[in-house]
Amino acid sequence: SLYIAFNATQDAIELELPPLLPEEEWSRVVDTSLSPPHDFEEDPPSLLANVYTLPAYSSLIAKKRKRVLTI
User: Fold this and answer.
1) 55: preceding bond cis by omega (within 30 degrees)
2) pLDDT value, residue 71
3) Measured on CA atoms in the order 24, 50, 41, 71, is the torsion positive or negative?
4) For 10-19, 25-34, 35-44, which range has the lowest pLDDT when averaged over its residues?
5) Long-range contacts of residues 32-38, Cβ cutoff 8 Å, at least 24 apart
6) Could you give phi then psi for residue 61, rounded to 5 degrees?
7) Percentages helix, strand, coil for the chain, rounded to the nearest 5?
8) Is 90 exceeded by the pLDDT of residue 67?
9) CA pair distance 21, 27, nearest whole angstrom
10) Cα 57 from Cα 53, distance rounded (Å)
11) Spatial contact of 53 and 17, defined as CB atoms under 8 Å apart
12) Are strands 24-31 and 58-66 parallel, antiparallel or unpaired?
């Protein structure tokens, strides 16, 4: 599943990502507010919270995936 958001306003907005199962997490694939090469991640980082601040005039693509276990 993908979560796609666009912020066409001049102010940052807080997004509440849809809830997931305990074994799932959201990962940030695209955030156009970030400088390259971090605006698009081939190995996207996990989003640690279900709230994401999206800066003005930017977009976000988050992808649902199985939670990555760290040891």
Assistant:
1) no
2) 65
3) negative
4) 35-44
5) 32/58, 32/59, 32/60, 33/57, 33/58
6) -125, 120
7) 0, 45, 55
8) no
9) 14
10) 12
11) no
12) antiparallel
